[in-house]
Each structure stands twice: as structure tokens, then as C-alpha cells.
Amino acid sequence: MANKEATVAELTDRFRDSNAVVLTEYRGLTVAQLKQLRQSMAEHATYAVVKNTLTKIAANEAGITSFDDELAGPSAMAFVHGDTVAVAKALRDFAKANPLLVVKGGYFDGAPLTAAEVGKLADLESREVLLAKLAGAFKASLFQAAYMFNAPLSQAARTVDALRAKKESEAA
Confidence band (pLDDT; 50, 70, 90) for 165? Predict the structure, then answer.
């Protein structure tokens, strides 16, 4: 009994400490295939086979009830501590090569996700690509702002120069 309580406490902490969680069914996958899947997402997530009853209790203690109906059959969870998009891509790519892996749903940013929504996450560009695009947009905006600030100054300088020339010609 104490062992089950410790397991629930550990799972509850994992739910609370994760950026996102993805529930999968792995029926029919070999130990070698599961190891390969774990390695493919090790940088961003911990992938663990879980007991449904204990996982349901832990998820509920962490305030997540969206898995209640999905926890059936051989279940495993990806507890994301890094890039959620990278984990979704790893799961999608692995499932393409190994159709026995089924993504059942997820939980991200305080909201439940359907399997289709987890798939949409996988279609997003990686965090690095999005940051690079954002940096490019900022750089373009800064160049545009600098041009806009310089344009009135050069225009004012031309106007002052024209006024000076006019004054000189009137004085002569």
C-alpha cells in the first residue's frame, strides 16, 4: 500500500512539474521500440509506462481530469519538461514508423488536448525556428524605425539648407 502511495505522489509531482503531458497506448510495441521512443524524446520529456488506476488518481490530485476516460489498456505518458512541439513531433514520427503507438490525448498549458490537437502541435515549427523568425521580424522593424527617424532629420536638414540658401540669395 505504501508503495502505491509513493507511486501516486511521484506521478502527481510529474503532472505538476510538466509543461505538458501526452497519453499514449503502446499495445504491441516491443521493449526495444519503447527504448527507441524514449531516446527520441529524452532531451525534452520522460516517457514512462504507467498503471491506469494510479495515474488517474495522480492526475486528479494534480487537477487534471481529462484523462479519466482515456486511461484504459496499456498506457504510457510523456511528461514534457522541455519543448512540447519537439515531443509531439517525436511521437508523430515514431507513430508513422510504428502504427501500434496510439496518441490518445494530452494536457498542455492548463487545457486538455485531443489526439488531433497533439498532432497539430507536431505540425508547428520548433521553438528555435519561431524565435529566429521573431528575431528577424524585430530586426526588420528596427531598420524600418531607424529609417523613419532618419528621414525627418534629413528632410529637415535639406529644408534648413534651402532656407539658408534663400536667405543668402536675398541678402546678396
Answer: confident
